[in-house]
């Protein structure tokens, strides 16, 4: 599972809030799917920019994460690298795209665990729950940083710089 960081928890919550507030969502679009939502928050890259970056190498977000190579020079690897820099692990891309991470699913009530990967409200629930799971694992210093980020309402791409 992802390394718990204040920036990652903040990014997950921002992505969830954007979706809840009506941000464009289409699971079949690299920039508007589950991972695309988080990538927009973390990097500031537009949905179209994410879509274009993804075509540098074959595969969905899960495969792109698995094949991530920081030295490739591919735009998608730069995007994935920025996401990993705030705490994501390569396997997290597959879990986010399919809403399958066991630690997140265990936290949900049994009747809500059958999430559909292409349903907006299920993605919102997954993002919020994942943020909660990671927030519980933050150190006191990281919790203070998270409170600061949330109070400032920082845009993620600015906070990560």
Taking all Cα atoms into account, the compactness measure Rg is 15 Å
Q: What helical percentage do the residues reach?
A: 55-70%
The rough form would be described as globular
Low-confidence stretches: none
Topology, number of strands: 0
Content of β-strand: under 5%
- Sheet with the most strands? none
Straight-line N-to-C gap: 23 Å
Q: What sequence of helices (H) and strands (E) makes up the elements? A: HHHHHHHHHH
- What's the structural domain tally? 1
Count of alpha/pi helices? 10
Provide the structure class: mainly alpha
Overall average pLDDT: 93
Describe this structure in words.
By secondary structure, this protein is mostly helical. The protein has one domain (6-153). 61% of the residues lie in helices and 0% in strands. The chain contains 10 helices and no strands. Helix 1 (6-20) packs across helix 2 (34-43), helix 1 runs parallel beside helix 9 (140-152) and helix 2 (34-43) packs across helix 5 (75-85). The radius of gyration is 15 Å and the shape is globular. The relative contact order is 0.20. The model has no long low-confidence stretch (mean pLDDT 93).
